[in-house]
Design brief:
Strand content: 15-25%
Structural class: alpha+beta
Largest sheet: 9 strands, antiparallel
CATH class: Alpha Beta
Oligomer: single chain
Number of helices: 17
Number of domains: 1
CATH architecture: 2-Layer Sandwich
Length: about 450
């Protein structure tokens, strides 16, 4: 199913969309997505879209400097594209690199570092600093400029009805994510189940949002807590993934009943006002019938901890410093692309009940690696998971001819686990200690 204008009229059409994403192991790649929050270096204020030192001008400058193609909406630059990668604009002015699908972590890490170096260099004349934190440490949502994208206007109208912290999610949070392929339905089910099951452990490792609103917030990862109060229809854990017989059909059935945000026709955004996709597929909306492109768009507006499109996307990590950014796709690659490692990782969490899984999400949001997951130490589980991933990367190195293997990309995580604390725990300690609550010290520490 590759024609985006093809009608989508049944559950089977929705399932076929997922099936069309299948690829043989020889074609498996990894894509990494990374968001970062920008502030003016001297004042600490968030960066607006408008003006000579705004985000819009910065995107135009990056496009000219590095041969990116601008994407316009209403005559304004809202994204850049080049070679399978894109730089996109998030609701509060966060910039996201959606990396190209690449075969090795070396390539992914090289792409990420080149991107950050470029953004830093081009931001220097603008006086902008980019932060390696999971939430804005200083500003309330009301103080954060809003970016001019019609999609976000619709989300701003809808989401506050669903969750108390939905606007914080849109404007104040930043994450790093990774995308993975699957060979068939059984492989997808194994990977999505493992990713959903282990997401709390990974969130604990990468928890990095303990300061917000200019003070300690009581969390190691406020970002994880924010997502829990964004929209219960489309966020959180999907417990049906853990049930026997899970496959494309079950995910499609769930997605069909989630309210839509919008349709896009000819550049116009049509609010769906919470119409479930199932109803739209049956009855249409504003004279328009359901197309493959609508299903594709709808799936991008669903935000579970691990989600299915034509790829599997893992979503549980805060934005972190450089070394840990490269470690995130390596960790998940070692787990998801080696079957023995995938089974071993699932074995760490398979006996947990639904309530224990939910409790674990809140526990790691509050405590990071100091939390308890299913009655076990998050730190101990993290060490075991990283060891499993390391063995998976070694196995992949042998099987795929990657020399040396990519297990060394886990070294920054291993060093952190020796210290026994998530990044957010360390930031909170320094905030109340040597930094004495000085915002500028935090900005300097967390700058890329």
């Amino acid at each position: 199913m590759t024609d985006v204008e093809q009608r989508i009229e049944s559950l089977e059409d929705c399932i076929e969309y997922f099936r069309s994403g299948e690829s043989p192991e020889s074609d498996w790649v990894v894509g990494t997505e990374h968001e970062k929050i920008g502030v003016y270096t001297e004042s600490g204020q968030r960066v607006p879209y408008e003006g000579e030192r705004g985000i819009g001008a910065l995107l135009q400058r990056i496009a000219r400097r590095d041969d990116w193609t601008p994407v316009l909406e209403g005559g304004q630059v809202i994204a850049l594209t080049k070679g399978g990668a894109s730089i996109t604009l998030e609701p509060g002015g966060q910039i996201e690199l959606s990396g190209a699908p690449l075969a090795t972590i070396r390539e992914t890490c090289r792409e990420f570092n080149a991107h950050v170096d470029l953004v830093i260099e081009e931001s220097r004349d603008f006086g902008i600093t980019w932060l390696s934190l999971g939430v804005d440490p200083i500003h309330a949502v009301s103080e954060i400029p809003k970016m001019p994208k019609k999609r976000y206007d619709i989300m701003r109208e809808y989401l506050p009805q669903r969750g108390a912290l939905a606007m914080d999610m849109m404007h104040a949070s930043a994450t790093v994510q990774a995308n993975f392929d699957f060979s068939d339905e059984a492989d997808m089910a194994t990977k999505l189940r493992t990713a959903m099951g282990c997401t709390a452990i990974v969130s604990a490792i990468f928890a990095n949002s303990s300061i917000s609103g200019g003070s300690e917030n009581g969390f190691a990862s406020k970002r994880v807590a924010i997502w829990r109060e964004t929209d219960p229809d489309r966020c959180g854990l999907l417990h049906f993934v853990f049930e026997e017989g899970f496959g494309y059909r079950e995910y499609a059935e769930w997605a069909l009943d989630v309210p839509m945000f919008m349709l896009v026709r000819g550049g116009d955004y049509i609010p769906a006002h919470g119409l479930p996709f199932r109803t739209f597929m049956r009855d249409g909306l504003a004279g328009h019938s359901a197309r493959v492109k609508d299903w594709d768009l709808h799936l991008t507006t669903l935000f579970p901890e691990a989600r299915l499109k034509r790829i599997i996307e893992v979503r549980g990590a805060d934005t972190v410093p450089r070394g840990l950014i490269c470690a995130l796709p390596a960790l998940w690659k070692g787990i998801l692309y080696d079957l023995d490692s995938c089974r071993a990782a699932w074995g760490l969490v398979e006996k947990m009940s639904s309530s224990e899984r939910e409790d674990a999400q809140l526990a790691v949001a509050r405590g990071g690696l100091a939390a308890s997951i299913g009655g076990r130490s998050a730190l101990d589980l993290a060490r075991e998971l990283v060891d499993i991933a390391g063995e998976g990367l070694k196995s992949l190195g042998t099987r795929w001819g990657i020399e040396p293997d990519e297990s060394h990309f886990l070294d920054p995580v291993r060093a952190q686990l020796v210290a026994g604390k998530s990044p957010g725990e360390i930031v909170a300690e320094r905030w109340r200690g040597e930094w004495s609550g000085e915002e500028q010290r935090l900005i300097e520490f967390s700058s890329y």
